[in-house]
Amino acid sequence: MADVPPPPPPTDGEGDVPPKEPEGAVRLLWFDGILDAPRPGDTERLRKGVARMNSSGLGRVDLSVDGGQFSLLMEEAVTPGDRVNEAGRDELRAGLEEVIAQVPEGGVVESTLRCTEVFPEETRETLFTVTGGQLRMLARLRPVSAQDMDRDPARQRIVPPIAIGRRALLLIAVLFLVGLGLTAWRAGYLDRAFGAGAEDLEQNAGAFEDLLKMEVESSWGKLLVKIRRGERYPKDPAAAKALVDAATSSADRAAVNAVADGDSIWIRLEDADGKVLAAVETDLRALVTAEDGEVEVKLSSMISARTLRLALDKGKK
Length: 317
Description:
Elements: E1 28-32, E2 34-38, H1 44-54, E3 61-66, E4 69-74, E5 79-80, H2 86-101, E6 110-111, E7 114-118, E8 122-131, E9 134-143, H3 146-150, H4 166-187, H5 189-194, E10 202-204, E11 212-219, E12 222-229, H6 237-246, H7 250-261, E13 264-270, E14 276-283, H8 285-289, E15 295-300, E16 307-311
Parallel strand pairs: 10-16
Antiparallel strand pairs: 1-5, 1-7, 2-4, 2-6, 3-4, 7-8, 8-9, 11-12, 12-15, 13-14, 13-16
Helix pairs in contact: 1-2, 6-7
């Protein structure tokens, strides 16, 4: 019986025999992936192998040594085809073989290192693996994809600006200013910048006239109201009772009682029509416990504010 001839060598991704060489010159090349292996006792030759890989001009390799392991990480930068040559391929492979040779005997090497080369009609992907301490290169061919060509630096051009006429520019500017104004109004920036100052506000103590006195300061849209004892402030219970008995309205009696007991009152900011724009509640206990006591209240001013009023209630907005 005639001898059966051996099968042909494996191709297209099996073994070390690569598939047929793609037609045309390589257009792009890049690497990705990582290689992990046990660290050798002496890392000097390991670093020399990495330096040799980097001298190939086909990509940048970073060496990381951590504890008992080392890793090679390939940058994914694209190398243009005019910088790719066989000498560079040989140098990179020799450097990688030198690195693998430093792995301690019996050490397991895990590798996902891959080289992608884009040719005019096909793309070749080569996976670098290690078996029995030897480097193996498994390659396959596939059609060129749109994702491959998207990595071409020559195609990543800056999109030229769109020509815009004067009328369109003017409209955009107006819309921008309107939007900016609305944003500033909603955020309260306009009130802060142009809110009524202390000198612009009428101070009205209402039922607290002469019982309390106000001092107002303003700074960047904020009003600081200081309240102290007035000329008619009751200094003792007898004086308070006399004021209550002399009061001609319920509001006057309530005001005297609030002052004498240190109860809460309201500071209201109103517009020209008496509409309440803001109201802050505060108690008067600090005035009861000390003759020179003082109550401080802060509130935000507004453009339309006209009156600052002391009141028994918060009023209606």
